[in-house]
Every structure is written in structure tokens, then in C-alpha cells.
Description:
Blueprint: E1 5-8, H1 10-14, H2 23-34, E2 38-42, H3 47-57, E3 63-65, E4 70-73, E5 78-82, H4 87-100, E6 103-108, E7 111-114, H5 120-129, E8 134-135, E9 148-152, H6 158-171, E10 175-181, E11 184-189, H7 194-204, E12 212-216, H8 222-227, E13 230-233, H9 239-243, E14 247-248, H10 256-265
Parallel strand pairs: 1-2, 1-12, 2-3, 7-8, 12-13, 13-14
Antiparallel strand pairs: 3-4, 4-5, 6-7, 6-9, 9-11, 10-11
Helix pairs in contact: 2-10
Amino acid sequence: MKIKAIAVDLDGTLLTSEKKISDINKNVLKYLENKGVKIFIVTGRTYISAKPFAEDLGIDSYIIAYNGAKVVDYKNDEVVFELPLEEKISKKVIELGKERGFHINLYQDNKWYVENLESLETQHYAKHTGLTPIKKSFDTFEDYNMTKITIQDMNNSKEFNEFCNELKRVFGNNVYTAKSQKFLFEILNKNVNKGLILEKVLKNYDISVEECVAFGDANNDLEMLTVVGYGVAMGNSDLELKSKVKYVTDTNDNNGVAKFLKKYFF
């Protein structure tokens, strides 16, 4: 089948360990776009953090950010779709996170809020994304409809993983949760995930999911990789993700995206 779209995650997928898009990956994606294939960045990152990579590629399509909670036409910064967490859920996540003493990141209106600028988690995330944190007491928001909330623990401790499981039990199907990194647990609106929102975006372009290739490396990519016709796990993905998808390619540092596309679609 001829492909009409490519959906690609950023960290651990399109980006190298140095957080760059290799020339090989860039050239292959641009070649296919010039042939009429739509290229979509689908990431857990914030829109602001993802936009420079869309500009680097020069793609002519939307950015699906925050695991699907916000879709933006990056050429004019127009928000096409957004579905934040409900206020009561945001407040409860904050309450439980603070009770357990874990680092919390809040995302709202393309801004990233923390209560501690000096923590290891804040410093790492700032370096990882290039974003600038804003210090704010979490008791002082007028609006608690957050685009996304993450709980972060750089040690990936036993207590952290137990707390992640606790949050799953407390909220059940009232939220969508996923680990985008071993140290980062994400909480979003229940009607949001990469696969669900990618399918909606593709329909806007009159493209079926069967005509789409998707690449990812982490747990939050699973829904996207299993809804499309060609779901591809990166070589650096864990074994559990690899076992659930149709295809596996090379690692993010070895141009896995380009290698798969060359093998199957050139």
C-alpha cells in the first residue's frame, strides 16, 4: 500500500541522544514530503519545545504535542485542538503528589510551572527540553484546567513507581496515564492519547490510519503504533513495546527512522 502519512515521535525516536535530527533522517523525510507524504511530529513534549524541530524539517502539517492534548498549526501558532485535564482532577493530582513529596510539573498555556527551580528534576527537564521553568505556588492558580501534569523522579525509585500505580488506581479510566521516560509519569485528559488524536488529525487530511507509518520508542507511543498500518518500534525501545508492534527498526542513534522508510517505501 502507498503511504500518505508518517507520524514520528521525537525523543528516543527521530532525535539522537544529542537531541538533534540527523541529516539522513531529515533528508529522507523531506524527500517523502516532496512526494506528497504528510509528516507529523507526535510528541509528549510541549508545543514550544517541539516547534523548533518542525521548523528544522520544514514540514507542512500540524504538531501533535502533549501526547495529543494539544494540536497546533506551527506556521501560525494556531491551536487546532486542545483538551486539558478537568480542574478537580488536576487539584487531586497536585494534592497527592505534594503529600508524597514528589516533583510535579504543570503545563498550561504553553508554560511550564514548578514550585522548586533548584531541584534535580527541574534542572534535568530544562536541559532536556530547552524550556524555561516558571516558579509558582501550586495553590495560587485561578484556573486548574492543565494541559498536562507530570510526576518526575530522576532516580526512578520504587516509591515513585508505587505512586504511579496508586494514581492509576485512584483515577482509573478518568484520566490517561503513561510513562514517556522511566523517570516521567504523565497524566492527561481521559480522551487523549497519541493514537486517538493522530487518527482524528489524519481524518482531517482524508488519510486513513492504514496509510500511515508511525515511529516511537516508549510506553506513551503504544496507542499510536498499534492504530496505524505500519507501527514501528525503535531498536532502543524496551522489549515489551517491541513485542506489541508489527515492526522494529534500528536505534535512534543509527537512523532507525530513515532505514525503515528506505527499506519499505523507496
